[in-house]
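Aim 2, interim progress: modelling of the iron/sulfur cluster-bound target.
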Amino acid sequence: MRERSETVTGTVTATGAGSATFRDPDLDARWRAAFDQARENGLFERLSEVYARVPGGRCSGCTACCAESVSTFFVEWLRIRDFLEASGRWSEALNRAEDYARFELARPMKCPMLEADGRCMIYEVRPLTCRIFGHLKAADYGRNLKAVLKANQRAAEEIFKHYGVRLPAAVVERSIPFCESFVSEAPMTSGDRDELFDDLFSIDSRFLMTGLLEPDQIQLGLVDWFAMVRLEGDALAEERVKHAAEMAEAGEKADK
Ligand code: SF4
Ligand code: SF4
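Predicted structure of the complex, ligand included:
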């Protein structure tokens, strides 16, 4: 349910959580093969070229935009995972992301890669969505925001129909306001942004062709990639809704 470069927390993706090994033994092998494919075919260089086309800008580092599981292409994910493994922080990041996955529907949460001191744990390899935030012109940002809010409401309705649970309004209606303080060297339109996303889609298509990526795995949320490692999708979906129901119940009691 994530829109391109979405700006609002997603609500309904069903992914899961586990222990320290890959839940699906084939998954690790598939991702390692994909990593090799990327390296041998210069796909990481192509990714860097796309990132290099993002204009420069001045950011105050307020972290207001680090408020969700941002959409992440597979090639970006491969690089993030490699970066975390190389820096010895893979397990820590995995645990943080899984926590996010479990409670995302119950309460608004910051991106799990955000450190307590306001730094990004994966700053050097952060996804395109993070890199372009602040560059989008206000009108385009507003249109995107509206679309995402609508999608979140639709998703919340689906959850209600399926599970009989009303998600907290703080989750469904949550939005990241337009950033007034970022100074872009070249503000972008939706079209400019889409060109960059299309180029990443084209890189990911290479993995589709070799069967290392499934069509429904294009541009998942960052947390969804982590969750896939150890969590059972169906069990996680149930757990997420259960936490949301508990939160709603606690809210009702507090109101009485
Ligand atoms: S882009 Fe804007 S909202 Fe995000 S950290 Fe920078 S100043 Fe804050
Ligand atoms: S990945 Fe980093 S830059 Fe992107 S939202 Fe998370 S903390 Fe912020």
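The longest strand covers residues 57-58. The pocket of iron/sulfur cluster (ligand 1) is lined by residues 59-65, 133-134, 179, 181-182 (CB under 6 Å).
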